[in-house]
Each structure stands twice: as structure tokens, then as C-alpha cells.
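[SOLVED] Need 3D model of a four-part complex

Original post:
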Amino acid sequence: MFSSTTEYALRAAVFLAEVREGYHPAQSVAEATKVSVQYMSKVLKLLVESGVAVSQRGPSGGFALAKPPTQITLLDVVQAVEPVERIMSCPLNLPEHAHELCPLHKAMDDLAVVAQNHLRSKTLAELVQQSIVPLGISAAKRASA
Amino acid sequence: MFSSTTEYALRAAVFLAEVREGYHPAQSVAEATKVSVQYMSKVLKLLVESGVAVSQRGPSGGFALAKPPTQITLLDVVQAVEPVERIMSCPLNLPEHAHELCPLHKAMDDLAVVAQNHLRSKTLAELVQQSIVPLGISAAKRASA
DNA sequence: GTATAAACCGATATCTTTATCCGGATATCC
DNA sequence: GGATATCCGGATAAAGATATCGGTTTATAC
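Solution:
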């Protein structure tokens, strides 16, 4: 259903929503989400390019959400890395289906709409576990902090 | 959203629902769906292995649906080639989420359920365009028949 | 202004998906 | 029972997604 890149992007976004204030280096995001720093850096870059996150270079730099978690939906994150695309014209290019999707592609497009609506209805804020520990910060690590 | 393999499988299933009686060689399915015979053969094999279609070797052989189109849903076809998987446990393996999905993966699993239900609600029969020409059989080809 | 922490960027490696090729097995038709 | 149409299966190729590596730039802190 979702590619691993999308899964990583969602984990990262939720993490940034949980930790909140300040910049968090890719290193921290990577550890919390259990993804390699190298790959997580690429994913974070996608989030920055799409306006979901912002980045800051240099010491005490890192990544942060571009807007409050209440204003970022799961769809924003998904579209940043692997857009759920609507089907606008028949991929078969049949003359019969030039101006109206055939029933099959209509059904597939319907699902795209349903999926988009579902993802749009959830904000990052709703996924933050206030009372629980931040995503991926394990008991051992917390103890040492 | 869907891989090309899934798209091909759906096209093939709709085609078989449209042409109805008898076996149809991979060649015919491939032409109608605008996919190479070689690749379509592999996709059709997946449909056979999952019980959506049946195959028959030799002259006047080919492929046909295993059940009437009213009894085959889009979900049957999709699950045959690229299952929409439920998320049963937290991929992060966090102790906190051992027996309950974290909100993120709960949301993702919810979408999987919504998608499955959507696909299950449409049968191949509902996608058949009775009054129109079969999928992919163009005007030129019809004229020559 | 120097040292350092961090994002950035391009090159490469690995794995998966998609696609093609070709010989073999099997059923049908005459 | 032989010729033929078709599915079947394995090997290979090409493309894309995933992942890693190393160097470069930029900002911060002191």
C-alpha cells in the first residue's frame, strides 16, 4: 500500500510533531524512526522541498515542521514523497474514453479520492501521543538521558 | 497508488468479464489491454494461481474467469497480484506498541481497511460496458473482424 | 576567525519490479 | 499420431526504488 519511503516520511513527520520546538538533526530523526541517517536525510529533504518541513544548517541546526502539527495532514506528508495520483484520463487512450473514464478507471480514481480524503482528515497533531514517550525513544535511551 | 502490474491485472480481468464465454489466449488479452504478451502472460498466471482465472492449454485454449463476473470483486484481483496488507503490529517494534498500534500505524491500517472495502464493493460485472465495445478493441480492429 | 556541527549534493551499490527471450510441455484438431 | 496452438518456466535484461559513501557548503558557537 505504502512504499517504505512514504512510511519513513510519516514516521519523521510524527516525530517532529512530537518533539516540537527547535531544530532536530537528521541524526536524531533517524534514530527515533529506526532508519539510516543517510536515507532519512534524503526523505527529510523531500519534506523540505514540499514545504512540510524546514531545515537549518550548522550547529544546533536540523529539521522542524514548517507549520504547527494541527495544520499538517497526513496527505501533505504523503504527497511530498509519493503522490496519490488522480486518474484524469484513460491510460489506454481509447477514443471511446476520451472524455469520460471507463468504469474501471472511474473505480480506481474513486479509490484515489477516498484515500486522499482519508489522509486529509488526519493531522499530525492527532497522532501525537501526549502521555506516551516520543516515537522511537526507547526506555534504555530515556534512562540514560 | 497502484503498481503497473495491478493495473494490468485489472484490465485483463475486465476484458475477460466483457468477452465472457470460452477461452481467450494471452495474445488476445494482451492486445486488448495494450500490454506485451510476455508480461501479460505472467500477470495472467498470477490470476490463475490465485483462483481468479483458469487456463487451458493447446489450440482453442487460453484464459477465462474462474467464476461469473458477478462473483469476482476488484479486491480479488488486486489481492492476486499485489495484496493490500493490513498492519498487524508496529513496524518499529516498540515495546510501547506491542499490543496496540501507535496512532500513526492505526491511521495507516484504517486506510488499508477503507481501501479493501472499497475494492470489495465493486464486482467485475459492474464494470462491464454492455453497450460499448470491449476494452481495447479499437474501431479499426472491429471493422476488420 | 577558526573549529565544528550540521544540511546538501553527486556518485555508486544493491535490491525489486518490470519487461523480454526462448525452449519445453501439453492439449487440440485433423 | 503428427502438426499446431497455446500455456508454462527459467534465464536474462532494463529500469526504478532503496540504500550507502564521501566530499562540499553553510551556519553557529566560542
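Edit: Residues 23, 25-27, 41, 44-45, 48, 55-63 of chain A lie near DNA strand C (CB under 10 Å from a C1').
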